[in-house]
Structures are given as C-alpha cells and as structure tokens.
Amino acid sequence: MSVSEASHDTAGTAAVHEGTYSGGLWSWVTTVDHKRIGIMYAVFAFFFFLVGGLEALLIRIQLGSPESTLIDPDLYNQLFTMHGTTMVFLAVMPLSAAFFNFMVPLQIGARDVAFPRLNAFSLWVFVFGALFLNSSFLFGGAPDAGWFGYANLTSTQYSPGVRIDFWVLGLQILGVSSIAAALNFIVTIINLRAPGMSLMRMPLFTWMTFVTSFLLILAFPAITVGLVLLMFDRTFGTSFFNPAAGGDVLLWQHLFWIFGHPEVYILLLPGLGIVSEVIPTFSRKPLFGYPFVVYSGILIAFLGFGVWAHHMFAVGLGPIGNTVFSATTMLIAIPTGVKIFNWIATMWGGSLRFKMPLYFAVGFIAMFIIGGLSGVMHSSAAADLQQTDSYFVVAHIHYVLFGGVIFALFSGIYYWFPKITGKMLSEGIGKAHFWLMIISFNLTFFPQHYLGMHGMPRRTFTYQEGLGFEAMNLMSTIGSLVLGFSILIFLWNVFHSLRKGESAGPDPWGGATLEWAIDSPPPHYNFRVEPVVHSRDPLWAEGGLDVDVNDPTAPEPHMPSPSLWPCILAFGLVLAAIGAVAKALLIVLLGAGVVVAAIYGWAFQPLER
Amino acid sequence: MSETAAASAEMHQSSTGLPSRKLLMWAFIGSECMLFGSLIITYLVYRGRSIVGPYPEDLLNIPFITVTTFVLLMSSLTMVLALAAVQRNDMRQGKLWLLMTALLGLVFLAGQVYEFTHFVHEGLGLTTNLFGASFFLLTGTHGAHVFVGVIWLLTLFVLAVSGKLTSENAETVEITGLYWHFVDVVWIVLFTIIYLLV
C-alpha cells in the first residue's frame, strides 16, 4: 500500500487520469476502454432501472385501492410485462455487466478485456436493443404476455399486432449482447490474469463473474431457440406451439425455464461476488473459507441447470418429475447457506467498520435469507401448488431480486464509486438512503406474503372490495412510493458527491485486491507496470505489492485505438429487427448488409493504429 | 485479423499460453452446443407427432444424404490439409485446400437445396406439419452455419491469393478450422437422429 500511496502524490500521474474520461461524445461512441464502457453500461442500466421502477409504481398505485380504474387491464398487462422484462434484462443484468467491465480487468491486473471491440459491441447491442424494446410503447403498445411469455398466449391468435414481435426480437438481440460479453469475460479471466494470480487467488467478484459468464453462454441459447420457434410461428405460420396441429405449449415452458432458472443465478451470483468483496474489506479479515465460497458458487451454477421444472409444478409433470425437481431445488439451499455462514464467519471477530458498503451488504444478507427461506418453501411441490401464481411468489422473488440483488448492487456502487469516479459518496445521505430503502422495501413486500396466502392472484389488474386485501395492498403501495423516494435520495447523493464529495485517493477502504493499488479514477491503461501476485489478498501482504504498478518512469503502455465498427454492427442488427417488426423485407436486408459490411470493416481494421 | 493477434500479444501475456482468440472460439462452440442441443430436442420431442403427412419415412432419402454427408466429412480432411499447408508456409497447397474445403461445403449446401426443393415438390413445406417445421428449422440452421463457414473460407482464400495470408496467420486458419470441424460434427449428430433413426 505504501508504494501506491507514494506514487499517488506525484503530480505527473494525477494529470494523466484527468484524461481517463475526457473527450467529447464521439470519443464515448467509439471507445473500446473497458472503464468507459462500464460507466455507459451503468448509466443506461440505471436509466432503465428508473423506467422499470416507474412501471412498478404505476402497478402499485393501481393496486392501492380496490376496483381502481386508473389503469385499464390492457395497460396493466403491458406494465407488468415490461416491468419484469426491463428489470431483468435492461437493469440488473447490465448493472452487473457494468461492474464486470469496470472491475474485472482491474482485479486481475489486466489493462483491458481480451477483446476490447467485442466489449463495445456488447454495450451497443444492449443499448439499441433496449431502446428497440421500449419503442414498442410508441407503436401499438408494449409486450403484454408476461416476462415469461407463455405459449400460446403469445400466438397470433391471442396476441395479434406487433407487441409480441417487439418482445421476441428484442430478447434475441439482448441475448446476442449477453453472450458476446460473457464469451469476452470467460477469455479475459482465463487468459489475462497477472503473473502469480492462479484461479484460487482470484478475488471472489472475478470468480462469480467467471461462473456467471458460463451460465450466460449455456443458458441463453435455450431461450434463443424458444424465441426462434415463436418467431417462426408468428411470422411464417409454423405450428410449434399450436396444439391444434400437434404442437406442445409445454415445450415453450421447458425451453424458457431451462434458460429462466439459470438466469436467476445470472442475476444473483454477481451480487454474491460483490458481498464477498465488501465483507472482508470492512471486517479487516480475509474471507472465511475462500475455497468453500468459490465452490459453492460453482455448485449453485451447476445445480441451477437442474431445477427448471420447479417453475412448472402446476402443469402436472407427475410425481417423479415433481419429486426430482423438488429435491434438486432443496439441494441449492446448501451451497447458498454455506456462503451465508462464510460471510457471517468472516465478520465474526473482525474489526468491523460500518461504512455504507457494509450496511448494504448486511442488509443484503438479512433480506436474502428471508427470500431464500420462502424459496425453500416453494421447493416442495405440494406447498408450491398453494403458492403458485399468488402474491406469495411476488413477495419471494422481490426478496431475492430486490432485497438480494439490488441491495448487493448498491453495496457494490458505494464500494467502488470512489474507484470509478475518484470521489467518495456521502455517508450521511447514504445512511438516509439505506434506512429508508430497507424499511420501505419491507413495507412494500412483506405484506405480499400474507396477500398471497389469503389468495390474491398475481397479474390481475384489480381486486374486489371486502376480500380483506385492502389494508395490506395500501401498505404495499405506500411502501413502494417511499422506496421510489429512497432511490431519488441515492441519485441526489451521486450528483452531490460528484460535485462536492471528498477526494477518494487510490485506496479509501484499505482493500486487499489489485484495483486499490492504482489511482481513482484509474489511468486509461490501468497498470503502468504489470503487478505480480503472491497471495489472495495482495495489498494486505506485508510490504504490499513488490512492484510499483504506477511507476511514472515506466514507458506508457499502448492501448487499442477507438473503433466505430462495433457500434455500426450493433446498429445493423437492430435495423434488421426493425425491418422484421415492420414486415419490411427491404429494411431487413439493409440491416443484414450493414452487419456484413461492419463485420468485414471490423475484421480488417487493426486493433492499434 | 492477423493484426489483432500481434497487437494483443504485445499488450497482454496469456496466462494459459493459449491464444485468446482460440479460447474464444472454444467458448463459442460450447454455447453453440446448447443452441443445437435445444433445436435437436425440439426435433425429437415432435418426432412422430405430426397429424398430417408427409411423414419422415415418406421423404427422407438416406442414400442421397449419405453421399452429401461423405462430402462434408471430406471437407474436414481438406481443412486439416489446408491448415497443415499454411503452417509450413506452403501457400500454393494452402490456397488449394482452402478453396477445396469451401467447394466441398458448397456441394453439401447444393445437396441441401436440392433436398429442400424436392421435399417442397412432394408436399412438405415449412408450415405443412410439425415434421416440416422442425426439420427445416434444424437442418436450415445447420446449413446457415455451413454457409457462414464457406464465406469465411472464401475470405481466407482471397486473402491468400492476394498474399496477405501466410504462415504467420496459421492461428486464424486454425480457428476457422475449429468452427468448420464443429459444424461437421453437428452434422454427424443430425444425420444420425434425423436420417438413421427414421
């Protein structure tokens, strides 16, 4: 640590990082720097987090009173479909991707990802795909068949018009982005680790990124095939999901959930990685049982492929299917529990510093345990039949995905914001954000357990008076409005801290991993001199790093040149999708032409010019 | 292509000693396995569930497809010969075998076009029944992969003719080969489950 602090004081390096984010709009469009790409992922993801949040608030306001006529059933269907789709694909996944992008190369001591232009491509496909999906609100309405899009609700018979076409094409495009990014991170983590960083010395966040990337490349093809079958049914008139012609609607459910359950862990594992970074740092103790935490993450991912049919207990798979999937689902509780005990054991006897990242990490553990316990309840097929399609399930998924993932992501934001921007987030405003968020979160979602047990169904736009649902729905709605307000407090914290926050310095928290060895924000080449790693917690080793990674006398590393081709290629893909929705073959062909031209332009453009 | 490899070699060491682009192709092939796996499962689930004809046993011409299958498998041999030639910088042979691989791929595709049109004449369209839909989607996806491979091989051939492809780019040819062999292996599976199990 002493080494990095010494070099931080040199005026020369300070001047360099001023330039990390400088440059006009064009420099951001053509950038291949993983840090800038990470920031753009974060900004767009947070924008769509707000969009998805507004959709949720409209849903809650509608349900705040019985027989409300504020929102009609048609709009309500669009809102809950787009709320789910947006939060999963446009908010949480890209927010995780933002952290993958910014932190993984820093944590493994690399100067960038293995394929910087492929990385830019992933970003722009996500951005254009997200805009494409949301543009449906302007053209005949948004998708309205639920985020799971069950066949044959999505057939042209029951869903005429272009709404489902937007959903089918939008998700295929977003799949391209996710797979490209995941391939990139797999190769980056395998191949660009600093000397001495063996797999079992990698930081937990990098490990979970690695595992998540494998889940992505193996799970997304299943939904892609499902979407292609659906597209053929809707566009070309095949009968894959048409029971009248022998088609089987359950095939959709299988293909969707073979993707859909690993997707739950795609959302969750990066959060588990963040918490496994934050807790050791703020306990001043190495992670308790590091190999157990790593192997538990791998086991969760592995088992995640064997539990999909627990989403389908209500379809009647028969006793053997239900039993097998009940058992595998219960098994997942074991590695998840192992992780929780390891986090608690890490904090046990540590010198805890309750800064904002630790607040959110501890909040995560508490909320995630509640969500995990209701998850174990669903794993029993008999119990699940009582709970399925009720608000109990809504409460469960929000305890896992909001109480779990969003709290973990906020922990990561408070933890790494100083590294990314060079400014500390305000602890005072942060505390207001945290307490308001955790109280209103519980006010919003805890009553939903009872609503579900009392029989309130999901995805229904209203309920009648006198069923006993009024009070708890009103509580939930009030909670959601406060929850929305707490997000505004966070945004205020960001704007306030960017202008007036105290300077972070390279290592404000006393972290153990390589990202804290370099300045905040990092220079565009990250490490001037390649670090050498001898342990799991390199900066906590006696004497710190044995190389001065910021040595200003070392030659400045060459970095890849900016490129516009990734953005053009992404645009071509979406152009083809626009043509497909508009049923205009000419636009499809034009889009395909742009794609081919961009691939060749990209392939023949040197990485460094 | 080639420039990328040189530049990234300068920027990063490789932790495993393997080129990053090769790892990328292997990971991509892993993902493709799930794609074809899902399509194959769709085909198998719908096997024997068409409620109107024509049915597979009415149409599938095993001797004909055996010939095109042989052609495609031979293209894997020529791919290996192309890589070996490029590695020893024998670009005359390299060009020959690259072109030969692409041509064998084209012969396979021509066989597929003939088969598809023949089926349509016999009354099996994409929308006729579940067999038509799942057959055309599965073999069509494979054919699209062969087509991409042919374009890729022809690009390499043009580069070789213009002298831009030498033994320094052997890695690029090797990665093309990985893709090409994978597409061939997928066909062996499809040949078995569609034609031999009819």
List keywords for this structure.
heterodimer, A: 609 residues, mainly alpha, Cytochrome C Oxidase, Chain A, B: 198 residues, Four Helix Bundle (Hemerythrin (Met), subunit A), disordered N terminus
SSE layout:
The complex is a heterodimer of chains A (609) and B (198).
Chain A: H1 2-8, H2 11-18, H3 25-29, H4 34-63, H5 73-107, H6 116-134, H7 163-191, H8 204-236, H9 249-283, H10 290-304, H11 319-347, H12 356-379, H13 381-387, H14 391-421, H15 427-453, H16 470-500, H17 565-581, H18 585-603
Helix pairs in contact in A: 4-5, 4-6, 4-16, 5-6, 5-7, 5-9, 5-14, 6-7, 6-17, 7-8, 7-17, 8-9, 8-10, 9-10, 9-11, 9-12, 9-14, 10-11, 11-12, 12-14, 12-15, 14-15, 15-16, 17-18
Chain B: H1 2-11, H2 20-45, H3 56-59, H4 62-87, H5 91-121, H6 130-161, H7 170-196
Helix pairs in contact in B: 2-6, 2-7, 4-5, 4-7, 5-6, 6-7
* Largest interface, C-beta closer than 8 angstroms, per-chain residues: A-B, 51 and 41 residues
Q: What's the CATH first level of the domain at 2-188 and 272-284 and 352-562 in chain A? A: Mainly Alpha
What number is the mean pLDDT of chain B? 92
User: Going by CATH, what is the homologous superfamily of the domain at 2-188 and 272-284 and 352-562 in chain A?
Assistant: Cytochrome c oxidase-like, subunit I domain
Percent strand of chain A equals under 5%
Label the structural class of chain B.
Answer: mainly alpha
How far the N terminus sits from the C terminus of chain A, by CA atoms, comes to: 36 Å
User: Which geometry of chain B do the CA atoms define?
Assistant: elongated
CATH architecture of the domain at 2-188 and 272-284 and 352-562 in chain A: Up-down Bundle
Summed up, the helix count of chain B is: 7
* CA distance, first residue to last residue of chain B: 43 Å
Order of helices and strands of chain B: HHHHHHH
> What is the average of the pLDDT values of chain A?
94
